[in-house]
Amino acid sequence: QVQLVESGGGLVQAGGSLRLSCAVSGRTVTIYPMGWFRQAPGKEREFVAAIRWSGTNTYYADSVKGRFTISRDNAKKTVYLQMNSLKAEDTAVYYCGIGQLQGSIFNPDEYGFWGQGTQVTVSS
Fold this sequence. Notes:
By secondary structure, the protein is mainly β. The protein has strands at residues 3-7, 10-13, 18-25, 34-39, 46-51, 58-60, 68-73, 78-83, 92-98, 113-114, 118-123.
């Protein structure tokens, strides 16, 4: 059974940093794209960042480009999201997911497995 566990969320002041981790167990995910999405209260889940299996192809939402960095360690089956220069509008529950080989990495409906999420709260 596939299990994704996010960690690293918390409360931080605006301008601060956090590093999220997503550990995967129960499945070989090294060939699949992995993505981070977030969902604020009353809003739909939105794309944040994604990474292909090789780690050389990364994608970011315009709102986080230049501030967030996604990376992966296939040996550890873990994906990371380094978040710098955090803003109040980054406040949300952050989820990691396993994408499909041929699906859209920007569409949450194309992701087959999700973690439980980790709360990120940025105070202004």
